[in-house]
Predict the structure.
Amino acid sequence: MNFPFYIARRYLISKKSRNAINIISFVSVMGVATGTAALIIILSVFNGFDDLLQKLYNSFDPDIKIISSSGKTFDPDSEFVKNLKSCDFIDEYSFCLEENAMLQSGGKQIIATIKGVDDKYQKVTGLDTMIVKGDYLLKNYEAPCGIAGQGIAYNLELTVDYTYPVSVFIPGRTKDFNGNFSDATDNINQCLVYTSGIFSIQQEYDTKYFIMPLDEVRKLLEYETEISSAEIKLKKNTDVEKSVSSLENILGKSFEVQDRNKQHEYAYKIMQSEKWAIFMILVFILLIASFNVIGSLTMLIIEKKNDIRILKSLGANNKAIRNIFFLEGLFISASGAVTGLIIGTAVCWAQIKFGLVKLGTGGSFIIENYPVLMKSADFVYVFITVMIIGTFAAWYPVRYITKKFANIEY
């Protein structure tokens, strides 16, 4: 066994002559352990929220979304369709058309986004699995039907009994407006749609979208074949990045190809920036806690000055003596890191298993407990971060304080 390693290990587990050194060493280990556990818990909670958002988005958003890079709509001509069909990684695709409109039911009105979808839309997204009332149905005996978000259904007091239709109003796109109210009234396009289902995903979607047949939205907007997006479902085990790159090369600069992260780029950036901001704050706190390691090593070196004399009489050089106390500092940091990882894992497991910390009691949250998802990469990054801090914390006292005692002659 390496000589400095053996002596450092003995110093770590042996009882010191002064009880204060034992206490400070214990506090040092627990300080590092607390910081490490906090890092693991915080990162796992952020992972849980990130995973939750992805699952929610996956229920509504497609794997890939293609939009025009120069306008709100584009015409999916035969060349465009041919290009999509030539991609062997595409399982299914759907054409959609979105626009803001005023919805009215009874005496209540609301501004929402109507989304016209074709018959393939159900195969592209998981919206049909998020229906909480009624059915996924776009037509009922030739009558156009719509699927409302839960927030819209609540505000308009919608039911799914096909009794009262929802009136959809959109300003005409091609009619002239001369400035009087009669012209404004004539310039409004309107259609009636029965509510066939109500979906619930999250507030962002539930209060925004009203799903309708594509041909009805085209009539309202006075379009013939135009769409605002082509939404794509990929085959299983398909690499998304490669698929996006391939579509960009095939379709050219006229189209923008978005994966799920790109579709919600702002939300994901906010989540990631918050995660790493909290990580850096906790690392700074861990850095402060590492001063305990410096204090513990300093007192240990002072206490072991007689041992230094003995070791030098046995032939140990200054480098070996410094390595002993340097390894002692690393042992303290490693002990704290491992203890913290165990504590963090235990807390995360308890939260997953028993839901110890609740999000709230009001019943307005998507889930009841704080979501937690542990990732092995986080454990590696946290351990490396703690050991880097521990290395500097051990190096400082060993570098400057052992100079005095390492030069003592026997």
